[in-house]
Design brief:
By secondary structure, this protein is an alpha+beta fold. It is built from 18 helices and eight strands.
Length: 454
């Protein structure tokens, strides 16, 4: 390496300081880029620090395809793995493309960090601690993601809402963790304690290993020894003392006004990604007697818009302008109006107005009742006759299309018909081949039978 440095210094004696800087920052480890850097210095393309930065990026991205926002212009171009193919007049173009690749990589890295970053406090409490094992009560999703790292539990997935789904069913979670891992699936175990309307005959404790395999208490006793019985006793006591989650209390109809306001503030976020979750949560909120009229009025005003937003988050590709008039949006509007018509905090004048609207929607106001199915509150009413939907569809089909639109539709149908004809021919060939094989098999069987008889 010293020989290379001496050769470059002898070749470019007027840039001794720059050559020494390039030699100190050469990313190859054997100064194989040094002569190219000296050539750029001699051509006065840039100062030594900038050339060193370009060499760092080149060593990082050499041989890779040019990406970033300029990828559409250089879709087939790669950074050549040999830096000496780039002449001094190519220095600026090489620098720009390397910087483009660096920015694209940085954007991807930031996106990945946002994807796996845990926002919020990690809430967990130790319920058992011994020389070889610690058991924690997991109180929120952040704690589940943090302490469930390295497992296959669905509740430990950061971008999924399975922890909240189980919490809404009033379940509690306890994580077992060995202080000195043995390298097997019992190094971490998730113990779920169901509460509330748990199906009769089911176990009081449900355990999953780190590989998400359900196991019984005998397997846990074999893995952790006699201390398991003490652990189960403390876990049961902790689960009984722990209050139900906020969303579980909302679904049960026992939430406070503050809890209802907190849950409704989160309905518009990505936490409630599925449309049915938004529908169920809004229906439960308006069926809680503790809900204030200001909150109920806001729910009535925003219910349809929240459902449409959930549709967009769920990537349901449909015509939203038609969906607003029917389907989930119209159904949630009817549910909210029916619940408010019998809610104790609804003003009398508003109740009269809602009753008139429900009658126009073919709903019998006298038959509106509160329900509680599977631990979730809601309302029931006489479902209106769904009339007009077919007429609405026909009105859509009778709209005036342009010649270009009709031609595109015809081309689309022709392509579809062509694909179907090809599939039909392939199926016919397959059936003919099967029929031929069956005939040959029958002929062989008959021939064999005749030979045996003779």
């Amino acid at each position: 390496m010293s020989t290379r440095l001496d050769l470059v210094l002898a070749k470019y004696p007027n840039h001794e300081n720059g050559v020494h800087l390039l030699a100190a920052r050469d990313p190859s480890g054997n100064q194989k880029y040094l002569d190219w850097g000296g050539r750029m210095l001699a051509a006065e393309q840039a100062l030594a620090p900038e050339i060193a930065d370009v060499l760092d990026l080149f060593h990082r991205f050499r041989g890779q395809r040019v990406g970033g926002r300029a990828a559409h212009r250089h879709a087939t171009e790669c950074i050549h793995p040999d830096v000496y193919t780039y002449r001094p007049q190519d220095f600026a173009r090489l620098r720009d493309r390397l910087l483009t690749m660096k920015r694209a990589r940085d954007r991807k890295q930031k996106k990945r960090e946002r994807l796996y970053r845990i926002d919020g406090a990690v809430e967990a409490a130790v319920v058992y601690d011994s020389a070889d094992i610690v058991v924690r009560h997991i109180m929120n999703k952040q704690a589940s993601v943090h302490y469930g790292l390295g497992t296959r539990w669905c509740i430990a997935m950061l971008r999924e809402g399975y922890f909240d789904d189980y919490s809404s069913q009033n379940a509690t979670f306890f994580f077992f963790e060995r202080k000195a891992p043995l390298g097997n699936e019992f190094d971490k175990v998730c113990l779920m304690v169901p509460r509330g309307d748990w199906a009769p005959g089911e176990d009081d404790f449900v355990a999953f290993t780190a590989t998400d395999q359900r196991v019984g208490l005998l397997a846990l006793a074999k893995a952790y020894g006699p201390q398991l019985f003490t652990i189960l006793q403390r876990v049961g006591e902790c689960s009984d003392r722990y209050p139900g989650s906020t969303i579980a209390q909302v679904y049960a109809g026992t939430a406070s006004a503050e809890q209802l306001a907190e849950v409704f503030a989160n309905v518009g976020s990505s936490k409630f990604s599925a449309v049915h979750e938004v529908d169920a949560t809004i229906a439960a909120i308006v069926c809680n007697d503790a809900a204030t009229w200001s909150l109920l009025e806001e729910v009535m005003r925003r219910a349809a818009a929240l459902v449409v937003a959930a549709m967009k988050r769920s990537r349901l590709r449909m015509r939203y302008r038609y969906r607003r008039r029917s389907g989930s949006t119209l159904e949630i509007v009817r549910i909210v109006e029916a619940a408010l018509a019998i809610h104790p905090n609804t003003p009398a004048e508003v109740r009269d107005r809602l009753s008139g609207q429900l009658r126009r929607r073919h709903i019998n106001v006298l038959h509106i009742r509160r329900t509680n199915r599977d631990g979730r509150v809601g309302v029931s009413y006489d479902a209106p006759v769904r009339e007009g939907r077919r007429g609405h569809r026909l009105r859509h089909l009778r709209r005036n299309y342009t010649a270009v639109q009709l031609r595109k539709s015809a081309d689309r149908f022709e392509r579809r018909a062509s694909r179907m004809r090809k599939k039909a021919k392939a199926l016919e060939r397959k059936l003919a081949a099967a029929k031929k094989r069956k005939a040959l098999a029958t002929a062989k069987r008959v021939k064999k039978t005749k030979r045996v008889r003779t």
